Inverse folding.
C-alpha cells in the first residue's frame, strides 16, 4: 500500500518542491488517464489545468494518454479472475500497477457521439474488471471535453467506474466539462479551465483528508460481496 505514507523531503530539495510539501507531510499520488487520441488536444488542456494545481498542491501525478493506442475490449475469458491481471498484456496491465499504488484516479475523455472515446472505454472495462486490488477510498474524478453536446452523459458514464468500486468522487463547482473543437480551442473556455482547477484542488483536499481519516479511523468495515444476479 503506498497511500498514506509519510515522505521526508530531503533538505537540499526543500526550496524546489511545491510550496505546501513540508518535512513529514503526506504526499498523495494521482494517476491520470487521458483518453484523447490527439496530442495537445482539448482534453489535454483540461488535464494540464489539473496537473498545474497538483504540482502546486504537492500532489505527485503521472499522465498516460492512451487514446491512440490499439486497445481491444474485454473478451470475458475469465483469465483475470484466476491471475489478477488481464490476458492481454498491454497498457491496461501497466496502468493497473500504477493504479494500485495511487491515491486518486482522473479519467479524461473527449466526447464522441455523446459518449466517451471507445478506446478509453475498452481500457477502463478491462482495467476495472481485471484488477482485484482494493480501490476503497481512492478518489476518482472524471473530465469530459466536447465541441458542444453529450458532456453530462459522458460524465455520468465515466463516474460509474468509480461508484461501483467504493471510490468517492471529487466534484467541482460545475460538471467537469470543457469545450472546444479544433485543437487549442479549449484555451478560450475560461469557465471550463476554472472548473478543472477547482476540481483538482477539491480532489487534493479529499485525498489528504481521507489519508488522515484512514490513519485515525481505518477504512470502513467490509462485507463479503453478495452477487445475486437478481435471481438467487
Ligand atoms: C468521432 C467523433 C465524434 C464526436 N462527437 C461529438 C459529440 O457527440 N458532441 C460534441 O460536442 N463533440 C463531438 N466531437 C468533437 C470532439 O469532442 C471535440 O473536437 C473535442 O475537442 C475533442 O477533444 P480532443 O481535442 O482532446 O481530442 C466528436 C469528435 C469526433 C472525432
Amino acid at each position: 500500500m503506498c497511500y498514506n505514507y509519510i515522505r521526508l523531503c530531503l533538505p537540499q530539495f526543500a526550496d524546489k518542491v511545491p510550496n505546501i510539501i513540508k518535512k513529514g507531510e503526506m504526499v498523495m499520488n494521482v494517476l491520470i488517464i487521458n483518453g484523447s487520441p490527439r496530442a495537445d488536444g482539448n482534453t489535454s488542456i483540461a488535464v494540464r489545468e489539473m496537473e498545474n494545481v497538483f504540482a502546486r498542491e504537492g500532489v505527485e501525478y503521472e499522465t498516460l494518454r492512451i487514446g491512440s493506442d490499439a486497445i481491444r475490449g474485454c473478451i470475458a475469458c475469465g483469465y483475470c479472475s484466476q491471475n489478477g491481471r488481464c490476458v492481454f498484456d498491454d497498457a491496461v496491465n501497466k496502468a493497473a500497477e500504477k493504479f494500485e499504488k495511487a491515491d486518486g484516479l482522473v479519467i479524461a475523455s473527449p466526447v464522441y457521439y455523446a459518449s466517451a472515446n471507445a478506446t478509453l472505454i475498452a481500457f477502463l472495462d478491462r482495467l476495472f474488471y481485471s484488477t482485484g486490488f482494493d480501490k476503497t477510498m481512492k478518489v476518482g474524478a472524471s473530465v469530459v471535453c466536447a465541441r458542444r453536446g453529450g458532456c453530462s452523459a459522458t460524465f455520468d458514464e465515466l463516474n460509474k467506474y468509480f461508484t461501483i468500486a467504493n471510490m468517492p468522487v471529487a466534484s467541482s463547482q460545475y460538471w467537469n466539462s470543457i469545450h472546444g473543437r479544433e485543437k487549442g480551442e479549449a484555451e478560450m473556455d475560461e469557465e471550463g479551465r476554472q472548473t478543472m482547477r477547482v476540481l483538482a484542488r477539491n480532489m487534493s483536499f479529499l485525498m489528504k483528508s481521507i489519508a488522515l481519516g484512514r490513519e485515525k479511523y481505518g477504512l470502513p468495515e467490509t462485507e463479503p460481496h453478495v452477487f445475486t444476479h437478481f435471481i438467487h
Residues 36, 38, 41-43, 110-114, 145-150, 180-181, 183 surround flavin mononucleotide (CB under 6 Å). The first helix runs from residue 42 to 57. The first strand starts at residue 29 and ends at 34.
